[in-house]
Input
Amino acid sequence: MRRIEPYWYAIAIFLVVAAALFTYHLITGVTPPRAAITILGFPIYWYGLWIIAGVVMGAWVVSRLAAERAEKAFLAAVPETTARLSLAEAGLPETWATRLAEREVTTLGQALWEYGLDPRRLGLKKPEQADLGEALLAIPAVEPAWVENAPWRQWNPDHVWNALILILILALIGARLYHILTPSPSMAAIGIYSPLDYFRNPLQLLNFRGGGLGIYGGILGGLLGLIIYTRRNRLQTLGWADLAVVGLALGQAIGRWGNFFNQELYGRPTTVPWAISIDPIYRLPDYAAFEKFHPAFLYESLWSLLTFFVLLWLVRRRSDRLWPGEVFAFYLIAYAVGRSLLELVRLDSRAVALFGLETGVAVATLVSILVAVVAAAWMIIRRLTRRADPPLPPSGDAERGVSAG
Output
């Protein structure tokens, strides 16, 4: 029987808390203050806390998905009879068998699993890692590839946390640059009418509280960080991109609730039962007379949550039928569709201008259409030409379990 992954409990808590907050707001019309706490005179904002929670939750899910793929690769490569051998029966020198037993590694399968992911996981120094590798290679039942370049090394979940900082930094830079190149109309309140105004007043480039971040720039920057990391570590970029977008979708679903506390990312005035109340100080000047607005942040959060569920299903249940990169492409299409629908109710979107004339089409909508078309065309052309890598191969009986050794 497959056990329930711990992250499902955390997702359930998020849903309960979010539902409670929104219900409270609908009943009272009150939005919690922007600042959660103040430490030494510095406010800690709910907006940042929700974003951090989204990042951590997304990375956690990706690390678990990577661990599942690593286990499947291990089970497909190492015969069960070999994996279950005790270290003594396997012929590993007694000194190594004793040292590994101290770390609760008692079978050949467990030793190969840990060494194949990363020898450092066994707490060994470099010379000791080399000695253990030679000892494992001397065992007749061990294939050299399991030690020298284990198939499951590719999906070491530690890569998620090791790559996270680089990806976040480049994603933040990309998101900020996208916003600078496409400033929203409300930026006129601080003297920003076009991208050139940022460079006339360079301090505004770093004024995150007076401006925003653009998701498409963040995706591009994060993808660049992923490419750099995977190339440096000789990993499959497209395969990891497929896993990364599962966490990204969940992170967006959670992080968008930061907009609720900031009373931003609301849509047009409305009288629907689920309309949110916006305090006068946070209303756009043209809508100062209105009180109730579409909760655009909620629409995007729910769409991202639905996208997360679909992507997770694809990764866990349909990987053997998909080409590497297709889950990533599906995310781009799903987000683009959701963003285009969201632009129908958003208020503060920059419109595309042609020859100095406003077209009425939001820049985000145009970008979304282009992204969706390119992603769909890429998948179709790839399939038709059949020049890409085949889908991931069947990966063995996941019920065996590596830890059982």
Q: What stands out?
A: Confidence is low (pLDDT under 50) at residues 393-405. Residues 7-68+153-311 form one domain.
